[in-house]
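so my prof wants the structure for this chain in the tokens format not the other one, which i didnt know existed until like an hour ago. anyway here's the sequence
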Amino acid sequence: MNGLSLTVRVACLACLSCPALATAAGNVSPQSSGVTLGATRVIYPLNGKGVSLSVTNPRDFPVLVKSSVLDEGQKKEAPFIVTPPLFRLDGGQQNALNITRTGGDYPADRESINWVCVQGIPPEPDSAWAGDEKQGSDKKVSMSVQVIISSCIKLFVRPESVSGNPVRVADKVSWKVSGKILTAANSTPFYMNVSSLTFNGAKLNIARSYIPPFAEEKIPLPAGAATKGTLKWEVIGDYGEKKEKTVQIN
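here's what i got, hopefully its the right format
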């Protein structure tokens, strides 16, 4: 689920007859509004007063930045507030998002996961062209395809009893094959984030890209896969660093 979601908004800047619009099809130009976040994940101390996350607009035009924190399934809002929740960010500029927990019943013996989602909203087409007379004379028939990009990164709520970096205890994850299923058992209080996984050289996919704390994750093996061999996986640490682990399954 971690990644980008796109919303496409198409606007006509000059409404002419249908034949003219067909002729103007070659003048359709995409305008992406993605912003850049200052981290690949956020660690939130369970009893902390708040954390910050930088956001940068790499474009040459302003965007509206809209932010929220969602639950694990990204279906509803989590008990956090982000300030400012909506603001204008000029091209090439950076600002800070302040994330504060407002409630919620989180366990004290393991991490919990939420998602910080940040959306860059481009200006309306008429606003984008406003004040640009030179382009206005050349763009009498134009359409602008505006791509609204939402970026979501993991937010881990970490209690005081859980300290350190998950890469240091990744060896405590055990692996076994039973039939056509590979099972990963995580005996640690950390979410183990997996960036890559192979078994005997064949790439495997973990549906959620992580193994929850004190839980198992089952991964289907491809048809004809052996039940013994070499498993390699990469775990992601608190700072986005990756460390490869090798396990022999007998």
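also thought this was worth mentioning. The CA atoms of residues 52 and 192 lie 23 Å apart.
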